[in-house]
């Protein structure tokens, strides 16, 4: 793929014109082939880009503006509809090239399964990788109704690769009893219900390490983000999620890649969810791309 010719549509606000000069590369993973409830997250990346037009370029939280960093929007990866296996392979190949070129992968989903090939590729480059996973759901199943390619499995699969003790989940409020038991028995960190305070406790232990950050928009309470496939009441506020992103940004970890997934615009005609996701992504860019 010629990255400078990858996408001809709208791009995230202030995207650079040159792939070669960028430190981070934005890309969409428009896949919702394995969702267990409501489809539609494949339309998330395009709508997040469109909503970014309404953003301010300056973050008063971080005292940085988008002109301070260099990033390129390569557009959506073309994925074959309904073919999960091939789609994951294509995502892996795309990200492998980004990493070979020294870029920070900055992904937008799509269902949460799209994070798996990205995390695997980043782990292949960074042997001491840790995962920060912010989500309503454990995503620790080995399969869903007989299908191992499922948006309910990516955290279990990456834990099997890098070791459960290197995976840290926050905001979890939904999952099978067996998933919580597996995490406890294998030394994986799960913070139930809250994100910010337990994150503050964990981050010092990750100082100096490469970290991949994956955020599922459904960690937010449906009052803050109704536009997602698997809504779950009792979530955190958008203010807490913003503060959590800033806490990671100010910590001593080195973000080796990140994504924001599971935005399904069709379920939110108010466009609150895509506008929230767009601002969250701006803060991730400004906080994680040094």
From TrEMBL:
Residues annotated to bind Mn(2+): 112, 135, 137, 139, 216, 218
Requisite cofactors: Mn(2+)
Cofactor note: Binds 2 manganese ions per subunit.
Superkingdom of origin organism: Bacteria
Catalyzed chemical reaction(s): agmatine + H2O = urea + putrescine
GO molecular function term, any single one: agmatinase activity
Pfam families to which the protein is assigned, alphabetical: Arginase
Pathway entry: Amine and polyamine biosynthesis; putrescine biosynthesis via agmatine pathway; putrescine from agmatine: step 1/1
Keyword Hydrolase: yes
Keywords, comma-separated and alphabetical: Hydrolase, Manganese, Metal-binding, Polyamine biosynthesis, Putrescine biosynthesis, Spermidine biosynthesis
GO biological process, one term: putrescine biosynthetic process from arginine, via agmatine
EC number: 3.5.3.11
Function: Catalyzes the formation of putrescine from agmatine.
Family of this protein: Belongs to the arginase family. Agmatinase subfamily.
PANTHER family attached to this UniProt entry: ARGINASE/AGMATINASE (PTHR11358), GUANIDINO ACID HYDROLASE, MITOCHONDRIAL (PTHR11358:SF26)
Name of this protein: Agmatinase
